[in-house]
């Protein structure tokens, strides 16, 4: 089997500037720009011929099944807004081979998650269709291995193996939209957080925008996701205190005024310095404004009593732990210059 059937010799433009996969998968427009007539394409794609049409206007230049890489590029070629004169942007002489541009087309869903390195998704070879996002006004239909998803605003793609791929939260939402198996949804959401692909808040925001939180099996998975995210954030908070040499606080406490009202729960508290840390694990599906107002009221009340409150997001703990430790250390050191805090009762939460 010849996997590199060459273009007919009449092609006036050399193909050295194309990456290997783009010598095997090309659009009809690209082939025409290389001097291949429509009649010649039809002849090459005859039954039993050396070429085959993978998708409308997209040809595979060898017999036999397409590889996963070829299918991905074929779907993008089919979905991308055609450039004039119909060829991908190419590097200048002397430059390395650049990834071809695929305007207005982004791989999403299960294929994107597999490209991002998820283990809970099927291998690309097992996917019958590949989801690709295009702008809402594009006139394209799903066909063959290409499933077209229209969107009002394309996400900024991430380059994965030279392909434009949706960020993990958006790819998750597009994948979950098609899944009815509660276990599969939970596995995907859990891996997204546990493997450090993204924070729970970003996932919930995308699921909310996709109007998926009306589905009971998705809500159940989100509850598990938020619990998982909080547990990971708490572990990182413990790590921050110990790795960066902060004094030991009391963990997971409630504060009350003596004989008075409940002041709120805190993740860590240093009674001698009257410094508190609270993890900001708000879920976007809740009323964020109302929840933030509650955070602000609590912080204001505690600070009126002389207690310094440091809010830390899980993302900052993950990406900038040393910086967050410095913020807490500064608050602890500044305690000596403040007036003594009001006496509060510290109870286990």
Q: Can you characterise this structure?
A:
The protein is α+β, with helices and mostly antiparallel strands and 349 residues long. It folds into three domains: 1-91, no CATH class; 104-239, no CATH class; 244-348, Endonuclease, Chain A. The chain has helices at residues 21-24, 28-33, 38-44, 68-79, 109-115, 168-176, 182-194, 200-209, 216-243, 288-304, 314-319, 321-334, and strands at residues 25-27, 52-55, 58-60, 106-108, 130-135, 146-151, 158-160, 163-165, 250-256, 262-270, 275-279, 308-312, 345-348. Strands 12-11-10-9-13 form a five-stranded mixed sheet, with helices on both faces. Helix 6 runs antiparallel to helix 7 (182-194). It is elongated, with a radius of gyration of 28 Å. The model is unreliable at 1-18 and 84-99 (pLDDT under 50).
Low-confidence stretches: 1-18, 84-99
- End-to-end distance: 69 Å
- The total strand number stands at 13
Overall residue-averaged pLDDT value: 85
What general outline do the C-alpha atoms trace?
Answer: elongated
Radius of gyration: 28 Å
Q: Into which percent range does the helicity of residues fall?
A: 25-40%
Strand content: 15-25%
Order of strands, main sheet, comes to: 12-11-10-9-13
Q: How does the major sheet shape up?
A: 5 strands, mixed
Give the count of helical stretches.
Answer: 12
What class would the helix/strand composition place it in? Answer: alpha+beta
Question: How many discrete structural domains?
Answer: 3
Order of helices and strands: HEHHEEHEHEEEEHHHHEEEHEHHE
Organism: Streptomyces caeruleatus
Protein name: DUF559 domain-containing protein
């Amino acid at each position: 089997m010849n996997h590199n059937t060459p273009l007919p010799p009449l092609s006036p433009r050399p193909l050295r500037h194309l990456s290997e996969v783009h010598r095997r998968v090309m659009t009809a427009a690209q082939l025409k720009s290389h001097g291949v007539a429509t009649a010649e394409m039809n002849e090459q794609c005859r039954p039993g011929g050396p070429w085959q049409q993978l998708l409308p206007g997209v040809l595979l230049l060898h017999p036999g099944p397409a590889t996963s890489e070829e299918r991905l590029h074929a779907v993008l070629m089919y979905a991308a807004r055609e450039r004039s004169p119909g060829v991908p942007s190419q590097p200048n002489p002397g430059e390395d081979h650049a990834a071809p541009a695929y305007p207005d087309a982004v791989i999403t869903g299960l294929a994107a998650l597999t490209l991002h390195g998820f283990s809970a998704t099927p291998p690309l070879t097992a996917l019958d269709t590949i989801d690709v996002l295009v702008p809402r006004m594009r006139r394209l239909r799903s066909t063959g291995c290409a499933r077209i998803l229209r969107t009002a605003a394309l996400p900024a793609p991430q380059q994965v193996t030279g392909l434009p791929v949706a960020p993990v939260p958006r790819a998750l939402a597009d994948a979950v939209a098609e899944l009815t198996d509660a276990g599969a949804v939970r596995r995907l959401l859990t891996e997204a957080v546990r493997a450090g692909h993204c924070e729970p808040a970003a996932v919930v925001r995308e699921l909310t925008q996709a109007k998926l939180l009306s589905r009971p099996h998705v809500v159940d998975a989100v509850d598990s996701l938020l619990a998982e995210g909080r547990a990971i954030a708490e572990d990182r908070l413990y790590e921050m205190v110990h790795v960066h040499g902060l004094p030991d606080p009391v963990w997971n406490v409630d504060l009350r005024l003596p004989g008075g009202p409940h002041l709120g729960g805190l993740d860590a508290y240093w009674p001698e310095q009257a410094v508190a840390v609270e993890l900001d694990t708000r879920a976007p599906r809740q009323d964020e404004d109302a929840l933030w107002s509650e955070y602000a009221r609590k912080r204001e009340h505690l600070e009126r009593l002389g207690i310094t409150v440091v809010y830390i997001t899980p993302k900052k703990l993950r990406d900038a732990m040393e910086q967050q430790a410095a913020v807490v250390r500064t608050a602890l050191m500044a305690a000596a210059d403040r007036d003594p805090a009001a006496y509060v009762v510290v109870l286990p939460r």
